[in-house]
Amino acid sequence: MQVADHFAIGNRRGSGVVTITGGALMVDGRGDSTLYIGRGNDNPPGVGGPTSLEILGDDATVLVSGNLSMNASDVSSKSTLIATITGATHTPILVGGDALIDNGHLEVKTLAYTPAAGDMWTLVRTGVELTNLATAVDGQIAAQGYDVPVHADPAVFGTIQGRFRSVTTPALRPGLSWQVDYSTTEVNLKVVGAVVELKGDFNGNSVLDSGDINILSASVRAGDNVVGFDLNGDKLVNQADRDVWVNDLRKTYYGDADLNGQFDTTDLVAVFQVGLYETGQGARWEQGDWSGDDRFDSSDFVVAFQAGGFEKGPRAAVSAVPEPGSLTLFGLAALGLLGVRRRSR
Known about the structure:
By secondary structure, the protein is of the alpha/beta class. 22% of the residues lie in helices and 22% in strands. The chain has helices at residues 131-143, 210-222, 239-249, 265-274, 298-307, 326-344; strands at residues 2-3, 7-9, 16-20, 23-27, 34-37, 51-56, 60-64, 67-69, 79-85, 93-95, 99-100, 105-110, 120-125, 160-161, 166-168, 176-182, 186-193. The N and C termini lie far apart (62 Å).
């Protein structure tokens, strides 16, 4: 799409949201053609709603012969550039003139991509010679059977003016952080730092969750002694490594189905509601398989009861020692819940 004058998102009496996911936007009908994110005259007084421009991914072209202006006249309640990162590259806004961003905000999002240390994306570049870039877009237009638009001579001198008033970013893996760098002609978004490996995080989502203990249990059953699953350093992958994961790394108890740090009747209700008890079907930790044998049966209650954590609260707050009657009481509680489940059927 070519705009022969200015391209304005929002005005003093309204708001506006534009998302660019592909194709080309050329704001270049005049030498001073401007892309406004929040635009309006300063007379009469008044403030419109929020305005935003989202650049999603890396498969678009955005060319502006004049300037990029983010709410320079204070006519929008908030002016936001949204950069949705979908990969190692991202579409920049290429501007022949200046980028007035000091009254704007930056919001960073990620979509189906996990940023890594060293990633960098150019969000805005000023003072760009746009002639050849516009010619390339003209070729795409002609290939579709449309008339090639007429372009004005773009500005070739421009700078980044100011910094974003605020920057909002999503969470990264532990050890990484976002950084916005401003130079005379560019705004770059970076990921800096080094990933802090979380011991026992076998599915790589930076959280110790049921997915990790399920992966570890599968490795124990396989008996292949893969080094990465050897948590206690004895060159074996067995029940002892499951103990390390549950007791030392996750700091909880066997039986804590929802992994909220404590083992109580809530966990029993949850696993019985799944309906896999004594069915012989495959089961996971969150479905009652606490023994790690891929089934939910009486052996799981034995493992959980003997661990001594039932109704003791969070492991970090107590020093749990199995009491003589705990296994019996636990068994009665489990059988009572099972009876209720069967009667309900």
